[in-house]
Write a structure and sequence with these properties.
This protein is mostly helical and 239 residues long. The protein is built from 10 helices and no strands.
Amino acid sequence: MLRAVDASVLSLARSDDEPPLTIPRDPAREAARRELSKRMYHENDPSWFQRALDAFWDWVSRLFDTASSATPGGALGLVVVIAAIVLVVGALWWRLGTPRRGPASSAALFDDRPRSAADHRAAAEAHAAQGHWNQAVQERMRAIVRSLEERALLDVRPGRTADEAAAEAGRALPSRTDRLRSAARDFDDVTYGGRAATEQSYHRIAELDRDLERTKPVLANSTSSSHSADHNARGGAAE
């Protein structure tokens, strides 16, 4: 303590006898910067996250103030406008539902879980009993295609779409071509078009499923044989 006092006295005495010490501006600025960069001066500084959050809220505050000054009624008018926008967006969301992608004809009809036609029919009936017509239509269309595969009227091919199944099945069941295409469109509309199925559309596809089970296919061999028989009959008649 005494040594510190003596040093202070000597410094004061020297300052009386000698001219004051002057440092150029740039070195003084550099010395101050080095001094202030020491950790002891920044122990209580806010973190980078806190600084970013403060900057964000400052920006929001300035934006709100600007919008308030430009809105009739000031801040209260701005709150009313924001509330009205939220209500409109909520009403549209509730009315239109979640945005869905448009029809995609390249999407597969079946998933990776192999199930029989009976399994798909049972699932369709369960959904129908609960009024879940979208799922009921999907499962019934899958039951139709799986049944045609089980009857060897369609080859088992992963990745087949509903439109492809309807077109291929129409060759063996030409009298049901239009109804098969209609059922495929219903499946696509429900699955990929964002449309809601109805009880009537489900019963229409279910009736088609039952009708197809009773319909005999037109085989290529029988068709060619019938054509040959007709040709021979006409040839014999001509003779």
